[in-house]
Design goal:
Blueprint: H1 4-24, E1 29-34, E2 39-40, E3 42-43, E4 46-47, E5 50-52, E6 63-65, E7 73-78, E8 86-95, E9 103-112, E10 121-127, E11 136-146, E12 152-161, E13 170-178, E14 191-192, H2 193-197, H3 206-212
């Protein structure tokens, strides 16, 4: 009987050793995609003149605007991740060396599985910052979101825009993260886009317009 006690202690010690790393691994979640894998927005049955580079040099696969295109263009990216994952940050990898309305933007959204009601909600967004780095990476934190595949569907929208055809603005990748971006005063809150759309124009803030009304859906 006495010899069984050390064996049991050793067995319990092994359980403790192997359970600790599993708990730590739950602190970080990632979802990412190259923008070229996303669906370009189609308006009135016409492709919006976007291009996907086949070159793996200069930063790798990226989406750009057509040679004569200066209108903002959009890409829809489905988010397929396990139920229960959490995110609190969104990042983009891009080329943006110019000021003004020449940038790459990405937003994270969800909408409910309901009949007759429920609006799309903007969960967070990020806009590129001017940088000489090619590519550059920039991120933005938002209120922690738990993925609910039973009651909701999530997706990411990417926008590429420029004011002149000589600016080679590029969207390489977008990703969602958890526990990576430091929490600070700029953490974004969810915005119900249906409520924003119902407001009079004068009552819509710049942030609400950027995250919910960036293009006129009546033109679809």
């Amino acid at each position: 009987m006495d010899r069984s006690i050390p064996s049991m202690a050793l067995f319990l010690g092994v359980i403790v050793m192997f359970s600790a790393p599993a708990a730590r691994s739950q602190n970080y979640y990632y979802w990412s995609t190259v923008v070229t894998a996303c669906q370009p927005r189609i308006t009135n049955g016409v492709d919006d003149v976007v291009t996907a580079s086949s070159s793996l040099a200069e930063g790798g696969s990226r989406a750009t605007l057509g040679t004569s295109q200066t209108l903002a263009q959009y890409f829809y990216c489905p988010v397929f991740v396990p139920h229960g994952w959490t995110f609190n940050g969104i990042e983009i990898r891009y080329k943006d060396s110019w000021s003004g309305t020449n940038d790459v933007w990405a937003g994270f959204y969800r909408q409910p599985w309901t009949s007759g009601s429920g609006n799309a909600v903007s969960l967070g967004s990020v806009t590129s910052v001017d940088s000489a780095n090619v590519p550059n990476v920039h991120g933005q934190g938002f209120t922690t979101v738990t993925i609910d595949n039973v009651n909701q569907t999530c997706w990411v929208l990417v926008r590429v825009q420029r004011s002149t055809t000589s600016y080679d603005v590029r969207a390489y990748q977008v990703r969602l993260t958890y526990g990576i971006l430091a929490a600070d005063a700029s953490i974004q809150q969810p915005i119900d886009c249906g409520e924003v759309e119902a407001k009079p124009a004068w009552a819509v803030t710049a942030e609400e317009r950027e995250r919910c009304l960036m293009f006129d859906t009546s033109s679809f």
